[in-house]
Amino acid sequence: MWIALILALLAIVIVPHFLDRRYYDGAPGPHYDGDRFFNPDGDSDTIRMPTGGSRAGFFWKYLTGNDGRPVWPDHVTVQPSKPERRVMGERMVATWIGHATVLVQTGGLNILTDPVWSRTAGPFGFGPARVAEPGVRLTDLPKIDLILVSHNHYDHMDLKTLRALWDRDHPMILTSLGNDSVIGAAAVKATALDWGDRIKVRPNIEVVVTRNHHWSSRWFTDRNRALWSSFIVHLPGGNIFFAGDTGMGDGQWITEAARLGPIRLALIPIGAFRFVPGQMGIGSHIGPVDAVEVYRRLGAAHAIPIHWGTFRLSYEAWDTPPKMLAAAMKCTGQTGFAPARIGQPVDVSAYAPPAPVKPLSRAARLACLDTPAVRALR
After folding, report:
1. Is the pTM value of this prediction over 0.85?
2. CA 322, 313, 95, 158: dihedral to nearest 10 degrees?
3. Are 307 and 230 in contact (CB under 8 A)?
């Protein structure tokens, strides 16, 4: 075992340069330097190790399990559902399939976000393993019309799943610059767009690729060779916002998304935010304390928390994200942002402007959450 761990660490530290890939060639711009993409609001918080220590120390502790992580369940019971084939008109049904994978059905359109059905989230079958099976079996999935792929991390871009869906349904696959090259390696066609670009899906349905705050890599050395993004889906009954995977950054990406029209449903990450005790967020992942502010600033009528409870990517306990989200929502006085069970279809009611609430600074939110119950969450 120890020899395997040492070899794994050596592979991480001494990665052959041939593993680097150039996924995109284009003119330099506001978030591309001609070689790699970058966050215009700064990259330092996404480059630093979330523990504040060294990269080698971080991976050593992770691989040996010597990092003080609370125990996760080996298995979480999921009752898979069989979605309707189509949901017509302005009715909307959302089914959280697990992690960042959500099936949204409305207007006769079946939309899937970051589809991952593989057992592990990593290369060659390695990486974190599922503790929760997908909430819909792949064979029970209705014909998919549109897939949104936010970036190329393995827990969001699963080439095996994309190939299976492409072979079966030939959906429109939308992603951000460079990721079409990664997806194309699996003989799957994807359309790559830059932040701010738009594409018609149907005459009355349009997708806009929007900014968020993250990074990309498949092989360590190819860091930021492809772009990361969130998405707005323009719909007659109110928009869908899919945040992808994101840290807070300057937070202006929230305002930019909100300006694109009323948001009926937001899919917002709340997990993989804690790597040391008491941590409330890291550069590339928001936690519940920031997710509630994202929800407020979006002006969304409803939201489903994603990116928790499926793959163990960080050190918080399995159920810490939803418990902390409930406490943070109580602090802010908001409603409409609460967990859905994996596999349970949720009827999303028609858009109505959310009741206004008094904004709370991050310091005020943290102060409100400074209670024995929240401090006890690991």
Report:
1. yes
2. 170
3. no
